[in-house]
Amino acid sequence: MSNVTVCVRFRPLSAKEKRDIGDNICIQSIDSENFIIKDEKEEGFTFSFDKIFYEESKQADVYEFLVLPIVRDAVNSINGTIIAYGQTGAGKTYSMEGSNILESDEKKKGILPRVVDGLFTCIKTSADSTKYTIKLSMVEIYMEKVRDLFDLSKDNIQIKESKIQGILLSGATEISLSNPAKALQSLSSGIANRAIGETQMNMASSRSHCVYMFTIDQQSLSEKRVKSGKLVLVDLAGSEKVEKTGAEGRLLEEAKTINKSLSALGNVINALTCGTPAKASHIPYRDSKLTRLLQDALGGNSRSALLCCCSPSPSNASESLSTLRFGARARHIKTSPLVKVNEDKGSDKKNGALSGTRDETFEKILEKMSERLNAEDVKLLEELFIQAGLFVDLDSTDDLESNFQDVVEQTISSLMKAVEELRSAVQMLQRENMTLKERLGAAERLDALPGGTADFLQKISGLLSYFIPGMQR
Ligand SMILES: Nc1ncnc2c1ncn2[C@@H]1O[C@H](COP(=O)(O)OP(=O)(O)OP(=O)(O)O)[C@@H](O)[C@H]1O
Ligand SMILES: [Mg+2]
């Protein structure tokens, strides 16, 4: 088991923050892992993380500490995820992309171009007997829909779970990256399609969660085995206090959806770290597209890291505190990174079959079929694959799960009803039992009376029964 690595990055004060309240900052450094932050009431809170990147930190520092170990693991087929989290305008996109994805200034390059360089360097230095292929998919979650940033016509990508590959984006475009220049060009074209808007905090605010998915296939030529590593980078849309920023219209709707999915992410993290095994089985991954997509990263076999981006300005202290509390909680998540080896594909190739993992093969069959069949037939074929257990459709898993929950709830409520009925039956029997006991006692007392008295009382009782309705003779 390994913990999620959590780092904090404070960006420099923005021009607006300086204009509004001068050069004051609300953080006080203790060392590279600890600091104190003061809230609006000047109350200090101490936080500890794996590393704190203060305002003067370099892009290269963040990459080397937080990202490089995960890149190396991904080349060795251990899945990895890096998530940038924080308030709008806190520096997530700057950390991920740099000031521009095609930035040539070495110092300003963000995580993504460094990941590209890192992947190709790792591959270059690996053994000749291994053949690598790197592929890239880019999607954004905008207003709870997953859009393919390489093909805008695919605006409702389904998230599926394959037994072999884990969470995957069904039908999302995958671009083969043959060299770093091609990779940067592809990233740049995808980024250009991302939803951007202007908020009070950020002139170019990301209005969607952006997911960069690198797949690194490693084929050992001697053993004919394929190992696959997935490296997922997530540049989240920023949380926003709408009452503070005064967002209206479309911006307000976007902000509400963003805040909702971020709170779903918070709920998943709370559930994962709440500690009781009973609760741990109810992780609400299906409450949002974002949490579904991050299911492997948070609760699965992925090595994960979180970069909490914050403003150092006292005017944003409460937002920074909430980001830091989120990060502190996420530090307790444990994941179990492991290497996944795919089936031997050598024999398939000899038979002229389609290359790729088993799920990829079925995806390709579906793709080929869609050229000949109409959409409904292809959908039917896909459903048959899912029914045969070749794919797992998360939506249908959800249906099954909720049906199962319904049945459990119904069973519990009918059992409770039956217990209630049994309880009242027992009470009734107890009352009858009491009456019978009383009658028996009375009969015994009557029998014990001297002979003449008993006959006399019997006659009186017979007489009274004529006058008192319901009385037994
Ligand atoms: N470490 C930094 N050094 C210099 N400038 C930075 C740094 N971090 C952020 N900035 C600048 O701050 C502004 C906002 O940053 P950025 O766009 O990365 O925010 P964000 O967290 O992605 O916000 P949103 O959630 O709205 O997308 C940008 O102009 C960016 O260049
Ligand atoms: Mg952004």
TrEMBL record:
Keyword Cytoplasm carried by entry: no
Cited InterPro entries: Kinesin-like_fam (IPR027640), Kinesin_motor_CS (IPR019821), Kinesin_motor_dom (IPR001752), Kinesin_motor_dom_sf (IPR036961), P-loop_NTPase (IPR027417)
Keywords annotated in UniProt: ATP-binding, Coiled coil, Microtubule, Motor protein, Nucleotide-binding
Domain Kinesin motor, residue spans: 3-333
SUPFAM superfamilies: P-loop containing nucleoside triphosphate hydrolases
Record-level GO cellular component terms: microtubule
Coiled coil ranges: 412-446
Keyword ATP-binding attached: yes
Residues noted as binding ATP in the record, renumbered to the chain: 86-93
Biological processes, Gene Ontology terms: microtubule-based movement
GO molecular-function term, one example from the UniProt record: microtubule motor activity
CDD domains named among the record's database cross-references: KISc_KHC_KIF5
Family: Belongs to the TRAFAC class myosin-kinesin ATPase superfamily. Kinesin family. KIN-1 subfamily.
This protein's name: Kinesin-like protein
Lineage: Eukaryota, Viridiplantae, Streptophyta, Embryophyta, Tracheophyta
